[in-house]
């Protein structure tokens, strides 16, 4: 039986003054990018800190490659490349000194691989870290995570601070590493980047796992907001019979209507040709639109796990 790179069961971490994570259960598969998607404060970083052995679970189980994340955390770290959400450095070191220092903790660093990473991410090595921009600090953090070529990557908001071109380059690199057989646990609150690279997605909100889906299922479930402005009032019931279309708000006596659109866009557009539309805004889907599928109101129960193997 193949040992899953990450396996958590009923994982809970509580705090005295704030919500933690509650009864998380999921596994990742070898050679996949598993997106961990949720808004800020949902519990993504707490989950990762438990996986890395920085926090002890209140209850439940967390394993990496069959090793217990708390009792065997030291051994685990040789197999994991990690980028924290809040990267801290020794400020007076140069980038080169920092990477050399970390290399001393690893059994073997391939010089050719290190050179490839530095060229790929265009890392500034000669400046002291305290003089680096946020983006250059983040690139240095990415390189250190991949430096020992580990089989598992745990990345907490890794594109934070990167410019759009470097974000694109990094996501391409993740796909290449996945194709080499790496398993990548990618925490993010950006729906677009997770949709682009992930194979499956775990969705967390308010400390609970809402669902585990394939990316194809995620795309089917997301909602795109459409804002319509009409020359005269329109009865929102004109949209009631359209599948995959929901009225989110009605303003100005029906002259402005916001819809949530999941599918059947051609049918909706045909309906709009019958109405006095003067303006239309069709925004890209965002993270909250995914949660509309599962949470119609606060306090709804956590959904089942789907798409998991």
What does this structure look like?
By secondary structure, the protein is α/β, with parallel strands linked by helices. The chain has 2 domains: 6-220, 3-Layer(aba) Sandwich (Rossmann fold); 223-284, Malonyl-CoA ACP transacylase, ACP-binding (Alpha-Beta Plaits). 28% of the residues lie in helices and 27% in strands. It is built from 10 helices and 14 strands. It has a 6-stranded mixed β-sheet, sandwiched between helices. The longest helix is centred in the middle third of the chain and has 16 residues, at 164-179. It is elongated and about 70 Å long.
The level-1 CATH class of the largest domain? Alpha Beta
The assigned structural class equals: alpha/beta
Q: Number of helical segments?
A: 10
Helix % is 25-40%
CATH superfamily of the largest domain: P-loop containing nucleotide triphosphate hydrolases
What characteristic shape results from the CA principal axes? elongated
Helix and strand pattern: EEEHEEHEHHHEHEHEEHEEEHEH
Q: Ends: how far apart? A: 13 Å
Our Rg estimate from Cα atoms comes to 22 Å
**How many structurally independent domains?**
2
Q: How are the strands of the largest sheet arranged?
A: 6-7-8-3-9-10
CATH topology of the largest domain: Rossmann fold
The average pLDDT value, as a whole number, equals: 88
Total beta-strand segments: 14
- Regions with pLDDT < 50 over 5+ consecutive residues? 296-309
